[in-house]
């Protein structure tokens, strides 16, 4: 089941890239089989560095040719160049003590008491804003992604802000967000 889930997520990422670029050109959505996708030689398979990839946020950065992914306690940066398989990751768990507090209130350690990244948005020329549920203590941080052409991917773990009102506490709540000048507004659906 685990293997199937990661496989599905890989396809999803690939389809997402295809969908986003076709939407932009206002043409019908492109449909590719898995075999078609591989035979183009323009796709590479990414299944996370720990063999399981469960995505909770995706941001395709066409300016930098990068795909940013957020999951459970983790962020990934993938380069989208031809057949590039270079990737970087940032481990981003809840703040110290928050996982334990969450478990103490009777919530599920695996599906609730972790930092599920729910938001990944461009902030300025060098940084993205990332927010996660932080084990029911939402938090946000800036990620340095560098300028176009650099593969920088770092976060200062001491510079974390309260994410209340930006992302939900609950990883399973449907959610959308918008970036309004300097502030980010979360919309709970
Ligand atoms: C993809 O790569 C394989 C092996 O390198 C090659 O045989 C094939 O012709 C390539 N396909 C395309 C569409 O470029
Ligand atoms: C982008 O924002 C971050 C976080 O506030 C800041 O550290 C960085 O210097 C800014 N970069 C630019 C190019 O304005």
From TrEMBL:
The Gene Ontology biological process annotation of the record reads: axon guidance; neural crest cell migration; positive regulation of cell migration; semaphorin-plexin signaling pathway
The UniProt keyword set, sorted, is: Glycoprotein, Signal
Taxonomically, which superkingdom? Eukaryota
- Record domain Sema: where: 29-189
- Cellular component terms per the entry's GO annotation: plasma membrane
Please tell me whether the keyword DNA-binding is annotated for this protein: no
Q: Which GO terms describe its molecular function?
A: chemorepellent activity; semaphorin receptor binding
Q: Where is the signal peptide?
A: 1-22
PANTHER family associated with the record: SEMAPHORIN, SEMAPHORIN-3G
Entry protein name: Semaphorin-3G
Origin organism of this chain? Liparis tanakae
């Amino acid at each position: 089941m685990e293997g199937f889930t990661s496989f599905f997520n890989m396809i999803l990422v690939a389809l997402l890239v295809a969908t986003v670029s076709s939407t932009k050109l206002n043409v019908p959505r492109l449909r590719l089989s898995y075999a078609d996708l591989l035979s183009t030689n323009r796709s590479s398979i990414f299944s996370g560095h720990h063999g399981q990839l469960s995505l909770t946020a995706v941001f395709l950065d066409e300016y930098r040719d990068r795909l940013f992914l957020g999951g459970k306690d983790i962020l990934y940066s993938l380069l989208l160049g031809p057949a590039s398989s270079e990737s970087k990751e940032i481990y981003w768990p809840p703040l110290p003590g928050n996982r334990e507090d969450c478990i103490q209130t009777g919530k599920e350690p695996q599906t609730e008491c972790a930092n599920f990244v729910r938001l990944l948005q461009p902030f300025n020329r060098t940084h993205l804003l990332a927010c996660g549920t932080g084990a029911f203590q939402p938090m946000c941080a800036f990620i340095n992604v560098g300028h176009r052409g650099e593969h920088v991917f770092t976060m200062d773990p001491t510079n974390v802000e309260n994410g209340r009102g930006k992302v939900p506490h609950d990883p399973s709540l449907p959610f959308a967000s918008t970036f309004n000048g300097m502030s980010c507004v979360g919309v709970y659906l």
